[in-house]
Design brief:
This protein has 139 residues and is α/β, with parallel strands linked by helices. It has one domain: 5'-nuclease (Rossmann fold, 3-Layer(aba) Sandwich). It is built from 6 helices and 5 strands; from the N terminus they run βααβααβααββ. It has helices at residues 8-16, 24-31, 41-52, 63-72, 83-91, 101-112; strands at 3-6, 36-40, 76-79, 116-119, 133-136. The protein has a 5-stranded parallel beta sheet with strand order 3-2-1-4-5.
Length: 139
């Protein structure tokens, strides 16, 4: 059974109904009932900020409803970011052209929990030599 960590952009596509931005390869992963789906609590923080500033317009009317939809509609488990993940983050070799601390935390979350990260961010591919397993979602 494969276990995947969904990045913030994938969550946005699901919550806003923008499924055209999800590649057929990633759709097959998401639709496979034997697949376990997770997201990082860091992605929830990003979603909350995007929701608060009006950058995303999900069907849900509150961040609580949004989290409930992730868990109950999409069957995505939210993983806490704790000491284990912080240790992995401290060891991560960050690239000079990739300055997003949320991305670094999400990458570390995937590495430390041995999850396959799904994202539309090509920069994540640079971290595969640091034990990141990565699936690129080509929009």
């Amino acid at each position: 059974m494969n276990r995947y960590l969904l990045d913030t952009n994938i969550l946005v596509y699901l919550l806003t109904g923008e499924i055209d931005f999800i590649s057929s390869k990633v759709s097959l992963i998401l639709e496979d009932y034997s697949t376990k789906l997770f997201t990082s609590s860091i992605s929830i923080l990003e979603l909350q900020q995007l929701f608060r500033i009006g950058k995303i317009k999900p069907k849900q009317k509150s961040i609580s409803d949004l989290v409930l939809a992730l868990e109950e509609v999409f069957n995505i488990n939210i993983l806490p970011f704790g000491k284990f993940e912080i240790t992995a983050l401290a060891k991560l070799n960050v690239f000079p052209d990739h300055n997003d601390p949320f991305d670094h935390a999400i990458i570390s979350h995937a590495i430390s929990n041995k999850l396959i990260l799904i994202s539309s961010d090509k920069k994540f591919d640079k971290y595969t030599n640091q034990q990141l397993k990565f699936v690129y979602n080509k929009r």
